[in-house]
Fold this protein.
Amino acid sequence: MRLEIKGVHYDVTDVTRDFLQEKLTRLDFAADQIVDLLVTLTKGKKDWSAEATINFRFGVSAHISETDFNLHESIEKMVDRLENKIRKEKDKVQDHHK
């Protein structure tokens, strides 16, 4: 799985990068199904936005976006939704082949 992290109106610090990579360990159950994960952290005037685009090995892609007043909270919410989406897509592929 290839991981790309970028910041808009924000320079991604090592602390934020380490926090994000720690949270993304929850997705290790499907690491062989994921081609790449593109994460964008955007600083707004009053809030933070964490967006992820995930491309699966079987040709499906998904986009997840979360907003919160705290950067780390928005990352946690995004990873929660990402985990649910990955489980859903993985179940679809497994059900399709039965």
